Amino acid sequence: MDVSIVIPLYNEEESLPELHDWIVRVMNQEGLSYEIIFVDDGSKDDSWKVIESLREKDSNVKAIKFQRNYGKSAALQKGFEVAQGNVVITMDADLQDSPDEIPELYKMITENGYDMVSGWKKKRYDPLSKTIPTKLYNWAARKITGIYLHDFNCGLKAYKKEVVKSIEIYGDMHRYIPALAKYAGFTNIGEKVVQHQARKYGVTKFGLNRFLNGPLDLLSVAFIGKFSKKPMHFFGAFGVLMFLIGFSFAFYLGIDKLFFNKTGVRIAERAEFYLALTAMILGVQFFLAGFLAELIGRSSSQRNVYLIEKTIDVKK
Known about the structure:
By secondary structure, the protein is of the alpha/beta class. Helix content is 48%, strand content 14%.
């Protein structure tokens, strides 16, 4: 199979028929074999009924319905697990991503050799309250991850099959799939300017919490990429440094008391002593945190579990 198109959705009943027909038209024009994988993230409207009706007229439609809302990352993860195409395309269900971009994205993977191609909505139809924070977020993501993309959070992306089978997305990590791919060893990451369409139906599903969660997740991704397999290198090194600073300061205070300030105040009465003691205690705690993280990391293999209510013709 040439292409798997993974579409996470939540309460998008109005846009699904139009999106499906648009994708089918493009795929038929290009002569590509394909599957459309809808992942219903616990929708409360009639999205699932619409998907069932689409399946009745198109055998290429496959679908998963979560028992409750888990978030976009969970939906993408499940879609990636069942995708069979050599190239996997992700896009949002709200018609803001254009299926007309799929053929060129497909060629960039199969002909130009990219591991992953991320869309860049250079011209956006969003209010300033969304575009300005997005620019700041993308700037920070570029600096921290070392991946120079203009639009990390664009839903329209293309991947080699091996990429999506090698990464695990959870929480809100869908914003940082390029970084996860890089840390998994897929470093040939490209970018393509794509058309951004104004929302036609419904309302956005992301609230103000994304402005807090985004930066926190960015720090998590940066830490995971560098220290997930070796947490002792971070906590242990910081702990040893703190302990040495505290011990050196305490040693200095002892030498000062014994040889230079014999008649002065006692060590325990000096504020510097408690700073040194605090530094040593923090150093030991950081070292133990790194040690415990190593033990947990080596023994833990539990994956996230998402309760699936219904499926349509999906296989792992």
